[in-house]
Design brief:
Layout (H helix, E strand, L loop, with lengths): L5 E8 L3 E4 H4 L7 H8 L3 E4 L6 H16 L8 E5 L10 H8 L6 E5 L5 H14 L5 E9 L9 H4 L4 E9 L11 E9 L7 E3 L12 E3 L1 H22 L9 E4 L4 H11 L10 H4 L6 H11 L8 E8 L3 E8 L1
Parallel strand pairs: 4-5, 4-6, 11-12
Antiparallel strand pairs: 1-7, 2-3, 6-7, 8-13, 9-10, 12-13
The chain binds oxa(dethia)-CoA.
Oxa(dethia)-CoA (UT7) binds next to helix 2, helix 6, helix 7 and strand 12.
Length: about 325
């Protein structure tokens, strides 16, 4: 039997606290002007004390279930993409599973940093298509504020906290215009450039959590090339050209990366969903957060083709083509 993985619903959850560039410039040697010009970021959300990645992911999961009009008991798999888990173990996915009151099915985390959501979607899609799961909550959730060095202006201005979720299902949405779901996914990695983007701590190496370190301008160069190539490859292997696709929902790292990739692929600015101004870089949460915005404000409609794409630490990168 040929199984499809349809997109039944989307959701998101952000912390209440907003930290503007202006506020940040009072404690860090930076300016609103520099951050906006170099990144397109105006503000970011910061989790409250005691508010963990699982709390944000749980909020996004509830929102997605409501959007899909599904009961939580229908979920048989939870995949959480995160690099900022609540604890070293158990997984944030099992913590969310318990918060949802679910004691059935399976739950696990995936760690591919900013590409995590594309990786998670790729695994969830494969598990639906091979018959291992029927209704999957795919969540990207992060509290990067906890691993930032707030004295390092080259990194602390770039990131924020949040979560987004998507429900993939063997059953199509009831809407008669609903698309065919995940058409193709493409994931890649290369560990050669680890020192350009990493966290300088971990349970085995240092027994600490560590802080994020990045040589941003070098990451930028690699990101633009790999993103453009992976989208072409992802579309091509599904039998499509880039200009068959209505919407592009990139990982939201930097407005200038979004524009450079769009230029390489000859995309119109209006086709590229950008939420970097108000979410900043939320790592694995950034794609589902942006997808949620563009679906709920009515831009992305049932039947539209949507390309997701991401690049992050590892390096990891990838793309996913959907028909919503
Ligand atoms: O999500 C995972 C993937 N991550 C990314 O994709 C991030 C990719 N990289 C970037 O987004 C950009 O490279 C940054 C936004 C991180 C930096 O922008 P840039 O245009 O590449 O700047 P730069 O690193 O080359 O730095 C230019 C200047 C430097 O000063 P000098 O050496 O020219 O005097 C920096 O010290 O800007 C300075 N600078 C700042 N100034 C004010 C760096 N950060 C700041 C800051 N405020 N926050």
């Amino acid at each position: 039997m040929n199984l499809n993985s349809y997109i039944r619903g989307v959701g998101s959850h952000l912390p209440a606290r907003v930290l503007t560039n202006e506020q940040l410039s009072q404690t860090v040697d930076t300016s609103d002007e520099w951050i906006r010009e170099r990144t397109g970021i105006n503000q970011r959300y910061i989790a409250a004390e005691g508010q963990n990645t699982s709390d944000l992911g749980y909020g996004a999961a509830l929102d997605a279930l409501a959007n899909a009009k599904m009961d939580v008991s229908e979920i048989d798999l939870i995949v959480v993409a995160t690099s900022t888990p609540d604890l070293t173990f158990p997984s944030t996915a099992t913590i969310i599973q318990e918060k949802l009151g679910l004691r059935t099915g399976a739950a696990f985390d995936i760690q591919a940093v900013c590409s995590g959501f594309v990786y998670a979607l790729s695994v969830a899609d494969a598990m639906i298509k091979n018959g291992s799961a029927e209704n999957v909550l795919v969540i990207g959730a992060e509290t990067f504020s906890r691993i930032l060095d707030w004295n390092d202006r080259t990194t602390c201005v770039l990131f924020g906290d949040g979560a987004g979720a998507l429900i993939l299902s063997t059953t199509p949405a009831k809407n008669k215009n609903a698309g065919r779901g995940v058409l193709n996914t493409f994931i890649r990695s290369n560990g050669q450039h680890k020192e350009l983007l990493y966290v300088d701590g971990g349970p085995s190496a240092t027994q600490t959590v560590g802080k994020l370190r990045m040589q941003g301008n070098q990451v930028f160069r690699h990101a633009v090339k790999e993103l453009a190539d992976s989208m072409k490859e992802c579309a091509g292997k599904a039998g499509y050209e880039i200009n068959d696709i209505e919407w592009f929902v990139p990982h939201q790292a930097n407005q200038r990366i979004l524009e450079a990739v769009a230029k390489r692929l000859d995309l119109r600015r209006a086709q590229v969903v950008s939420t970097v101004a108000f979410h900043a870089n939320t790592s694995a949460a950034s794609i589902p957060l942006a997808l949620d915005v563009a679906i709920k404000d009515g831009r992305i409609k049932r039947g539209h083709k949507v390309m997701l794409e991401a690049f992050g630490g590892g390096f990891t990168w990838g793309a996913a083509l959907l028909e919503y």
